[in-house]
Amino acid sequence: MKKSLLFLIIGLMSMVLIACGGGGDDDDAASEAEETAVVGEDLEDATEITFWTFVGQHMDLYSDAAERWNEENPDRPIKLSAETYPFEQMHNNLLLAVQSGQGGPDIADIEIGQFSNYLQGEVQLEPMNEYVEPVLENAVSSRFENYAQDGNYYGIPTHVGATVMYYNTEIMEEAGVDIESIQTWDDFVAAGEQVVANTDSVMWNVGTEDWLMDMWPMISQQESDAFNDQGEVILDNQTNIDTLQFLQDAIYEHEIAELTPGGMNQSEEFYGYFSEGGAASILAPLWYMGRFLDNMPDLEGKIAIRPLPAWEEGGDRSAGMGGTGTVVTNQAEDPELAKEFLAYAKLSEEGNIKLWTELGFDPPRWDTWESEEVRADNKYYDYFGDGIFDMLLEVREEINPLNFTEHTPDIISEYHTNVTQTVLRQNNQTPEEALKAAADVVRDQQ
């Protein structure tokens, strides 16, 4: 992996970084950690486990797990030394550490778009198969495939990232639309026409800087992607062309959508626009709930969460977007202990419950979705109602794995810089022309 490619990836995958609510200001990257936490330093004969992350919130999850571990395993105590770094610095330093064979942590978070960098050549991560394989039948297994290679599972997912539709029920009721009637994208268009005819809102927004929030999940629903599972570029296949045509038509033919203010639905401009009733729906992963609570508090009690419309009756109604895979490096002082602790923190039943109660994420293990702890009242149920996990149980088998390669950031760059500008903003190029041109650019770089 060339260093220039690493920096390209860092810049272009910032939109996926937002997906896990983490990161810092890259301009502030320094040699020191932004935040540190130590658990178990007063325990005699404790084995130190070092942990690097780029999301400060994740430190709370692991600190809690370390405290519980030490209470339950007094004969095998650990001293957890956790550090949070800016996104760019952490991934850069981690990649250099695994390549050089020194200076790395025992455990680390790796953002999903960066993960393929760490699977190049001889993999310097510890396989987690002995812990992953026993839980796969009770988990959304496609999310584990994102961190796997050659039959080995290297990363433990932090959430499903199930992509859903968020509907403003006040606007939909004013338009005379029953959201339960929206089962397919054709239904969505018809509902959008009612919204536009009967309210001052549009149905939806299409992003120009947000591959993660419309194009990618919509093609994933149809078992397509930018690459196939051999790493070959398929960005310009017919499914993807038709999907981009749908986005273009939503704006210019059906006139039920407009371009997303700020280019993406994670911008201050968009939050104000949506809070004021600019649009009736948002397509986003379940972790986007936190964006509502933090940035659109006035909409509490007005937003309903439903599956994505299917492309055809019986089709997939969700996609898994964003994510962080946590790994054990081969530099761990005690790799078996580090692997066991990581599985305890993120694969155990209690660990998965904590992913919801501590972080507000949809846990990868669906067998925890009906537990009392997951169903207990919290701020998300107060805002959205209590049917979140019932809906997820409906779509848990409708989430496909994603295909990442070292050229994923090139795809995203082409999509944001050229495709969305000519097809969606300027409306002067066909989806087929734009996607073929973008695909050829990336093929030339392979």
From TrEMBL:
The keyword Mitochondrion does not apply. It comes from the Bacteria. Residues 1-19 form the signal peptide. Keywords: Cell membrane, Lipoprotein, Membrane, Palmitate, Signal. Coiled coil: none annotated. It holds the Pfam family SBP_bac_1. The keyword Cell inner membrane does not apply. This is ABC transporter substrate-binding protein. It comes from Aquibacillus rhizosphaerae.
